What does this fold into?
Amino acid sequence: MKTRIVILFFIGFNWLFSQEERRHIVFFETDEYVVLPTEESRLLLFLSEIESLDIEKISIYGFTDDTGSDSYNLKLSQYRANSIKTIFSNNEFDESKITNVDGKGEVLLKVLDEENVAKIRGLNRKVEIRVKPYSPPRTEAELVKPKKKDFSEAIKGDVKAGDKFLLENILFKTGYSYLLPESKKTLEKIAETLLERDDIYFTIQGHVCCTQNRRDAVDRATNKQNLSVTRAKYIYDYLARKGVDKKRMKYVGMRGRFPLGGEAKFDRRVEILLTYVGGKN
It folds into this structure.
C-alpha cells in the first residue's frame, strides 16, 4: 500500500511540474544581438525539452546592460528579442503561440562590490523566455486534427494523375527529418501498397510548419535551412530501400507555404502527388 501511495505521489508531482511555466535565458555579448553558437545550442536543448508540451503561450523579453543611451538600449533589447523569435520560427514553433516579443531596455546596475560590475553587466545582456503550458492539458477532442484519407486504401481504388494524398500518421520530430516511432508501421504499409501499384508515378512533397514568411525550416541535424526537402527525401530513400523503383519517384520541399490550419504538428508532414497512373496521366 505504501509503495502505491509513493508511486501516485510522484506521478502527481511530475504532472504538476510539467504544467508549470518553463523559463530559459539567452546571454549576449556587448552591443550584439546575434546569438552565440554556445547559447544557440543551449536554446535548442531547451526547445527539445518543451516541444512535447501543449503550449498555451510563449513570451520573449529582451534586455541590455546599463551602458549606452536609453533609446539605443531599447532598440538593442528589441533586436535581441527578435533574434530569439527567429530561432523559434526556424525550428517549427508555432508563431501564434508567441504572444510577446518585447525589448525592455536596460537593467539598472545594482552592485556593492565594484569587482562584480563586469560580471553583473554580462548577466544583464540577455533575453528571457517564458513558456506557459495549458493547465490542465487539452484533450484530444479540443485539438484540431485535419481530416485525412488513408493513402494505402485509397490508392487501391480508382485514382488519377493530379490526385494528392496527405499521408496518415506520418509525423516528424520537431526540427528533424526522421519520423516519430508511431509512424514507422504506417510507412511500411505505404511501401507495400506502392510495390503492388507499380503503374503509379508520384512526387513526394515535404512540408514544415510555423516559419516566418512561410520559408523553409532549419534541419537541426545539418543546420541547413532545407528541412522540407530532407523530410521528402527521407520518405524517398525509405521507399527506394523497400524496392520502389526510383524512376517512379521524385521528391520536393514545399517549405511552409501550405499550412493546414490545425495543430502545428500536423503541418510537419509529407504528401504524395500522383503524376502518372497507368494511362490516366
User: Anything to note?
Assistant: The helical segments are 2-18, 37-50, 70-90, 117-124, 151-154, 184-196, 227-241.
